[in-house]
Amino acid sequence: MGGAISPTGGTESPDNIGTWSSDDAGMNRAIEEARRHVQVFERELAAPQAGRRYSVKKAFPTADGMEHMWLVDVKVVGGGFEGVLDNDPRDAPDAVIGRTYMVKRDEISDWLITDDQERIWGGYTIRAHLATLPEAERRAGEAHLQPLPE
Fold it and tell me: Which of 37, 59, 64, 87 could form a disulfide with 4 if both were Cys (CB 3.0 to 4.6 A apart)?
């Protein structure tokens, strides 16, 4: 199972794509937490702050699973979110970078708020990915993370 880790660059591969197994317990917990706290994202998106970018992660089907990628320029639409695909897919034939897609609220893989100082709110899958990195890379990534909602 593939997944885009971050729309802001950082600790990912040069093509901004990471991979993990569909039975990866850490990533599955991260997805569950993102969904459990999606109301925080919706509240922030309802009153956007200047300099902040709002993104959600959507799963796209591949021949052998799913590829999770970021939608940017997100807005709330009936029952979910709509945004522009920010990754060039590896294995998802129906996904096209720059095209607008919709994802249902209960189907997001993650949500993310970033600002012009490279601070990150949300980013549950990013946090799970960082835990797998060597200490120096992990610490560099964690320096951008802001507290998660309680």
Answer: 87
Average pLDDT rounded to a whole number, residues 118-139: 93
Over the stretch 13-61, which tens digit does the pLDDT of each residue have? Answer: 434 455 567 788 889 999 999 999 999 999 999 999 999 999 999 999 9
CB 105 within 8 A of CB 39: no
Residues 147/23, Cβ–Cβ less than 8 Å: no
From first CA to last CA, the distance across the chain in angstroms is 29
Nearest C-alpha neighbor of 124 from the set 95, 145, 107, 97 = 145
> Pairing state of beta strands 2-4 and 65-77?
parallel
DSSP structural state of residue 107: G
Cα→Cα distances 132→24, 34, 60, 112, Å? 12, 19, 24, 19
Least confident of 43-47, 82-86, 145-149: 145-149
- How much is the pTM? 0.84
Tokens 């890379």 belong to residue: 137
d(CA 138, CA 61): 29
Helix, strand, coil % in the chain, rounded to nearest 5: 25, 35, 40
